[in-house]
Amino acid sequence: MQKQMFFALDIGTRSVIGLVGEQTGTAIRLLASDRQEHHTRAMLDGQIHDVMEVASILDSVKKRLEQNCGPLKKVSVAAAGRALCTIRSTAQLETHGRLLTAEDEHALELAAIQAAQHQLATSNAVADPTLYYCVGYSVVTFSLDQSVLKSLIGQRGKIATIEIIATFLPRQVIDSLQSAIQTVGLEMATLTLEPIAAISVLIPPTMRHLNLTLVDVGAGTSDVAITREGSVIGFGMVPCAGDEITEAISQSYLLDFNVAEKLKRQLSGKTKKVSFVDVLGCTHKVSVQEILDAIAPTVGQLAQAIATQILELNTTAPQAVLLVGGGSLTPMLPEALAQALDVPAGRVAIRRPETIDGLVNIPAPLQTPDAVTPLGILKLSGSRTLNFVNVTLNDTPLHLFNLGNLTVADALLAAGIDIRSLHGRPGLGITISVNGQTKFIPGTRCTPGSILLNGQPASYDDAVAENDILRVTPGIDGTTPSPALSEVMDIPAPYTITLNDSQCLIEPVITVNGQPAAADTQLTDRASVICQLPVTLAEVLAATGHTGSSIEYIYQINGTERRYQVRPQPVIHRSGQELAARLSTKVKPGDAITLTPPAAPTASDILGIAPATERQIVINFNGKPCSIPTVQHTITLNGKPCTPNTPVPSGSVLELTSLERPAPIISDALLAARFNPRSLPPTAKVTLLLNDQPTEYTSPIKQGDSLKTIIE
Fold first, then answer.
1. Is residue 112 part of a domain?
2. pLDDT one-digit tens code per residue, 293-308
3. Of 96, 205, 388, 621, which is most buried by a Cβ count within 10 Å?
């Protein structure tokens, strides 16, 4: 029986380490290893920037390993914690008192991961949750019926519970990693997080009751993991590491980055002086202490950044800090970190993987701090870490993290397809007002989409497996109605009348939002429709363009321009009868309407001279009523005297003079009665009696008085 082979790659910012091992009982025996540094800075801060350059290094490592171990098809990798997002989640399983198995424990872990995915999708932790992958998880606690246990296997109870820390990274980080792997003909078998791999090597579960911090100091990132009370309680990342020190050396001595990197590695040896050539071609021989003094501030800054991340995750200084990774060999870093955390210097130490539980045959070249993470990746490749299921969705290859019981819904989520779009949305209804009455018009129904799994109709809950083919057709949304006006109301029929001997068709007057409209006008939401058939004389005249408005006359009155309007006199002929009409009179079909032009206004109309009955007093003169005006008006039309009843054409000039006499006298009464004493014979004698008493021509007179004249 052929033994199972495992291939692990640690794709770091500075170098790539490849390991091959085979399963031997419960352990993995190392068969081969290879290491190669990047020729250029193809990776920065744990992120691949030049996929093809990284792929060429992977291909070289892979080919050298295949010479010893045969063809390699699948590989286990780990991602750096760049842009890391961690979420704590829980899951429960009702066990009904049965014996719990390893499968039950694994099912709980996967359920907790799915709960973390849901929590990420419904929170505001990241801008777009669909752009994040779950790259690893760590169990915090198992419990059975509220009792905390290290493992659930072999236990009995009613309700099993798990709490995990799930870690998520942006899809861009994983996609670039996967692209480089696929370029060299490899398939990603498992994926984990670098600090998870490192902690599996150096801090086994038996040590996790201690408050320990593991810091994997690489070239571009420093990954942090913390244990306490029996579990891993948090992960973090600092986007600076050994390259910061290299940059400091390069800046201080004007060195090529690769030269500065070689110089940095010589600082940890016993050499007291080092030689190098700067970018100007000058050769220098400098003491190691001088270089250490130059980089001391940068080392202190790196230590402070790592300490800040540790305190943020742990809230206090841990009991001890374990440093791994090539960057952990940076001179003065353990001492600077101990000072930043305010812990004894002996509590911060560089760890090397001399012996690892679950790995055998570790060669001396791999017993170095930078080999901890690749050894951890290899160790986890044989365990239940996250692997992939390859499916095709709408002709596009899709790599799904196998969280167990993968469904169609998981594939749609990974492809960034909104599940709601497959249902389609009903069209939005509109509300309109028709002659003051509100009407609601619903939108059209949506057309649901379809899902085919391997050519057969499928639902969201159907399971997907390796090499399945999905075909998803989005639903078609319903439409918002845009009805014609004639579809939402009955438009009254027009009728015919005769106006000034001409036939006129009286049609309904239609407006939408105050603007003229027709029967085929398309209506939108909140449209206000008014449709009225003209029925009154005023409405009929407006509909025919004969507004029935007044004719306007313009005058100059006492030097000021004035305007005067006169309305035409409408007459309706109906069934042989002539009817006087007002603007409010209702018109019937077949009516004949005549508009008679109005006569020119008189002076009294224009000047507003009150009728005689309003400005006069009445007395009894010789037994007969006699009206005496109290105001005397003098009117001229275009410079000539006229009476109040004289018609006045437009454009005329009027002058009005009024003399008010609030208390008329006897002479006014005689003038009003047209009594002229001069018409009497010269020998005639006139006697005036006011209320039967003798009076004079200048005596005042009032309403109701009696005036008599006696002629002798």
1. yes
2. 999 999 999 999 999 9
3. 621
